[in-house]
Amino acid sequence: MSYNTIKVSKGSGGWGKGLVLTPNDQKNVVLSVTGGGIHPVAAKIAELSGATPVDGFTNQVPDEQVLAVVINCGGTARIGVYPKKRMPTVDIYPGSPTGPLAQYITDDIFVSDVGVNNIAALGAAEAAAAVAADAQAQTAAATPASTPAPTPPPPPQQKGFMSWVVKFGNAIGYIINTLLSSGRQALDIILKTVLPFMAYVGLLIGIVNYTGISNVLASWVTPLASNPVGLILLGVIVALPFLSPILGPGAAIAQVIGVLMGTQIGLGALPVQYALPTLFAIDGQVGCDFVPVGLSLGEAKPETVSVGVSAVLFTRLVTSPLAVAIAYLASFLI
Fold this sequence. Notes:
The chain is of the alpha/beta class.
């Protein structure tokens, strides 16, 4: 089998210095975890490199065979799952290190906002130079900066009361540093994930209200969202197995209808009892794009993944309308 070296560059709104990928007999799979089959970006990478594209939703591939993973994550979990495993990750959405796994996303393993025009085959001279530069960078990262100084002899062990004081001080220091680190990580997540999401939702509300889009959308979804039967039907639609993995990334329907219904309920145009069933009606697709990733993180066997993904998707088709009906009945108790 003939393989070629390719370069994947970031898009105009992307992040990362680009990836140079060279498949071989042991690592020759381009895993597409985007939903809806093989994404065109994964197909282009496979076409130019000679690797094999595989749909990550219906197939489980050992990590050591994966050349690169193509995802469509806006910055929650999947964006950091594969970089944490040191697998080259190509995100078709614009984005930068964010989310709870942001510390694992580095520019040597991740690139974002990638389209089919950002993938190019390298010539023999360019490929050799790129591979040599990559090997040099890895060698430099693996080589210690200087020869470590000889380890000094351990200090004499304290005994008696002083030993107890030292142990107590070490324990207090460990607790304080743990709490300080937890606070630092929590604040980092709030600044990089929670606050930007709140700003995004505020911007979306402003746009749909100012431009009149809310009125147009209201005329479209009112037949479904203004009565319990319509909400149940909406819950069925968003949970369709062939549709839910596509609606999951970005949650476009959930965000638009959620903002619209919340605004209408806040204005008093719809009764507040519609809030709870609407929540379940628009969230039937939540997590459906993450099923194969979650099973992979749980080190599930290939047979488990092939059955588990379909099982979860079809289960959502049943539980989503049931949840809407239960939420509608429960809303009268609030």
